[in-house]
Design brief:
- 42% of the residues lie in helices and 18% in strands.
- With 321 residues, it is an alpha/beta fold.
- The protein folds into two domains: 5-140 and 258-303, 3-Layer(aba) Sandwich (Rossmann fold); 142-255, Rossmann fold (3-Layer(aba) Sandwich), CATH 3.40.50.460.
- It has a seven-stranded mixed beta sheet with strand order 3-2-1-4-5-10-11, with helices on both faces. A four-stranded parallel beta sheet has the order 7-8-6-9, with helices on both faces.
- Strand 1, helix 1 and strand 2 form a beta-alpha-beta unit.
- Helix 1 runs parallel beside helix 9, helix 5 crosses helix 6 (177-186) and helix 6 (177-186) runs parallel beside helix 11 (310-319).
- The protein is elongated, with a radius of gyration of 22 Å.
- The structure holds 6-O-phosphono-beta-D-fructofuranose.
- 6-O-phosphono-beta-D-fructofuranose binds at residues 13, 104, 127-129, 171-173, 224, 254.
- Residues 13, 104, 127-129, 171-173, 224, 254 line the site of 6-O-phosphono-beta-D-fructofuranose (F6P).
Length: 321
């Protein structure tokens, strides 16, 4: 199937590596003689016809940059009945029938509404939450985990100096993937994730046990879906009398230069998305299983709830005794 042109957009929360994916989609397309258009500001921009042609040099010197040169925005307007209709019409006016959507589950719901109107769509998983089935890892996750690990290492310096207990709240929406992976990597004494509800009394018991064996500081990592860092911190200080401080890492986790792993993943998945559209595939998300590129129906991705690796969760607890 010959493809004359396609469009690419980023949508939802930004993630480090999105620019590398935009670069891959753009340059792979141009290499194959396909015109590329960038949609600025996600679905909101599509409704406003913010569709601009992309050239080879449009994506120069961005592989190393966090964020997204196409910007992103959440659009409730797009999810209204006529929203997708307007979006599909805008694409059609540009002669575009193929779209790459780089983002997370909310973005893929928007993509499917366009597919129902005849636009061929392929999703590229890019969310620091890493809460998508259909890929071992999403773009942005590795960089976000490294950001959290660096922050935890810094917190451990001051926790040991003052012999304090620290609570750190990290992002992830309803997923505990960031907290679990970063917590294991940084040796957090307790990791609270929504997928494995933990009573505060159990956390306090671990703290007391650690103190009894001479541990003078601890770090408790709280995924935002499992609780509010400040509430956990206050409860721990009240229940144990241990001087406790709280850090909420917030949007720091969304920024930063993407890691090499995220740049490579984004480059592979961006190019794979173009290949899928050239092959006439639509309604799928590209992903990796090990080192192998795979595609999964978007509907199956959206129907799935990704859990955590329970063995890893158990290991983190054992190694932090
Ligand atoms: O989905 C990515 C994410 O960073 C979540 O982890 C977080 O809860 C949410 O976005 C924050 O959304 P916003 O950037 O709109 O505040």
């Amino acid at each position: 199937m010959t493809l004359a042109r396609l469009a690419v957009m980023t949508s939802g929360g930004d993630a480090p590596g999105m620019n590398a994916a935009i670069r891959a989609v753009t340059r792979k397309s141009i290499y194959q003689g396909i015109e590329v258009y960038g949609v600025h500001h996600g679905f909101a921009g599509l409704l406003g016809d913010e569709v601009v042609p992309m050239a080879v040099n449009s994506v120069a010197d961005i592989i190393q940059r966090g964020g997204t040169i196409l910007h992103t925005a959440r659009s409730s307007r797009f999810m209204e009945p006529d929203g997708a209709q307007v979006g599909a019409e805008v694409l059609r006016r540009h002669g575009i029938e193929d779209l790459v959507v780089i983002g997370g589950d909310g973005s893929f719901r928007g993509a499917l509404t366009l597919e129902a109107l005849g636009v061929r769509v392929v999703g590229v998983p890019a969310t620091i939450d890493n809460d998508l089935e259909g890929t071992d890892v999403a773009i942005g996750f590795d960089t976000a985990v490294n950001t959290v690990v660096e922050a935890l290492d810094r917190i451990r310096d001051t926790a040991t100096s003052h012999e304090r207990t620290f609570v750190m709240e990290v992002m992830g929406r309803a997923s505990g993937q960031i907290a679990l992976t970063a917590g294991l990597a940084a040796g957090a004494e307790s990791i609270l994730v929504p997928e494995a509800p933990t009573e505060l009394e159990a956390v306090v018991e671990r703290l007391r046990h650690a103190r009894d064996r001479g541990k003078r500081h601890s770090i408790i990592l709280v995924a935002e879906g499992a609780g509010r860092g400040f509430e956990v911190g206050k409860a721990i200080e009240t229940m144990t009398g241990m001087e406790t401080r709280v850090t909420v890492l917030g949007h720091l986790q969304r920024g930063g230069n993407p890691s090499a792993q995220d740049r490579v993943l984004a480059s592979r998945l961006g190019a794979a998305a173009v290949d899928a559209l050239v092959a006439g595939t639509s309604g799928v998300m590209v992903g990796v299983r090990g080192q192998t590129l795979i595609t999964t129906r978007l509907r199956d991705v959206l129907d799935a709830v990704r859990g955590i690796d329970v063995d890893m969760f158990g290991l983190a607890a054992i190694l932090a005794i």
